[in-house]
Specification:
Helices cover about 75% and strands about 5% of the residues. It has five helices and two strands. It has helices at about 5-10, 15-25, 45-60, 65-75, 80-129; strands spanning about 35, 40. The protein has a two-stranded antiparallel ribbon with strand order 1-2. It comes from Lentzea miocenica. This is MerR family transcriptional regulator. InterPro entries: DNA-bd_dom_put_sf, MerR-type_HTH_dom, MerR_fam.
């Protein structure tokens, strides 16, 4: 399957500009092939890789770290321990971030409850008048 940059943008949710940026930054696992007229031609494998990179970015992995991981993948077998280290370090950062976010959610939920109780009490008093 061969896809245009526009089709890949639709399937991944990335803009055409972001796709070009990812290519320029060396984030794609494989070099993007060019079709007639020099247009980029992507494969399903490229889309799968981009989706993983999107998830890594959404979870806070910096572009240079994604690039390093990509470089290791491109190098092939023999560096799996390094890849594992990158992912485990990121996994721990995400785990810590989730703990912090849960603390934030707990605080917000308490505050919402306080304000909701207050607003409900005012509404009850207004109805009773």
């Amino acid at each position: 399957m061969q896809l245009s940059i526009g089709q890949v943008a639709e399937r991944t949710g990335l803009s055409v500009h972001a796709l070009r940026f990812y290519e320029k930054e060396g984030i794609l696992a494989h070099q993007v092939h060019r079709g007639p007229g020099g247009r980029r031609v992507y494969t399903q494998q490229d889309i799968d890789w981009l989706r993983m990179c999107i998830m890594l970015r959404m979870s806070g992995m910096p572009v240079p770290e994604i690039r390093r991981y990509t470089e290791l993948v491109r190098e092939g077998d023999g560096n799996e321990l390094q890849r594992l280290d990158i992912l485990k370090e990121h996994q721990e950062r995400v785990r810590q971030q989730m703990v912090q976010l849960q603390e934030c959610m707990d605080l917000i939920t308490r505050k919402v409850g306080i304000y909701q109780d207050y607003v409900n009490s005012i509404a009850s008093k207004a109805v009773g008048q």
